UniProtKB/TrEMBL annotation:
This is SnoaL-like domain-containing protein. Residues 14-121 form the SnoaL-like domain. Pfam families: SnoaL_2 (PF12680). It comes from Streptomyces griseorubens. InterPro entries: NTF2-like_dom_sf, SnoaL-like.
């Protein structure tokens, strides 16, 4: 197994709900390393990185990432995975916190890890937020969106 792949597998292990070691997770990153959550357009650096994984574990204390495929290409590691867990803690949103539902999630995702000299320089996470929200019981309000769209066209 490639040493970069080993580093990334260790990062996943450290972010598991039953392990959750934010300090050790952060230690795998370069000093200027970043964690970029593409589904929420958020970027985390430094001490924000362990806070991000701890925040997910507060919402899903049993969070687990099922790694479906791991491909190391030099200093890039691409991972297809599923993020799994039970919604047992509040889920933060810009509008407020969604209370725990007890629902299970099983969310498809793809992660890209960029390494430099054996450390993570950039972690880019793509997950299907629409699936995630649907599985915890947050369903889109299509009717309001359609009505708002119709009102905008009528008033233009």
């Amino acid at each position: 197994m490639d040493s970069n792949e080993k580093i990334i597998r260790e990062a996943y292990r450290l972010a598991e709900g039953d392990v959750l070691d934010g300090d050790a997770f952060l230690a795998l990153f370069t000093e200027d390393g970043s964690f970029n959550d593409m589904s929420t357009s958020q970027s985390f650096r430094g001490e924000q990185i362990p806070q991000a994984i701890a925040g997910l574990a507060r919402s899903f204390p049993d969070v687990h990432r099922e790694l479906l495929a791991v491909h190391a290409f030099g200093d890039v590691v691409a991972v297809e995975l599923r993020i799994q867990g039970t919604h047992l803690g509040g889920f933060p949103t810009p509008a407020g916190e969604i209370p725990p539902t007890g629902n299970r999630i099983d969310v498809p995702a793809a992660d890209f890890w960029y390494l430099r000299d054996g450390k993570i320089e950039k972690f880019v996470c793509y997950n299907l937020l629409s699936v995630w929200l649907d599985q915890i019981g947050v369903h889109p309000d299509f009717k309001s969106a359609v009505e708002a769209g119709g009102a905008a066209v009528t008033s233009a």
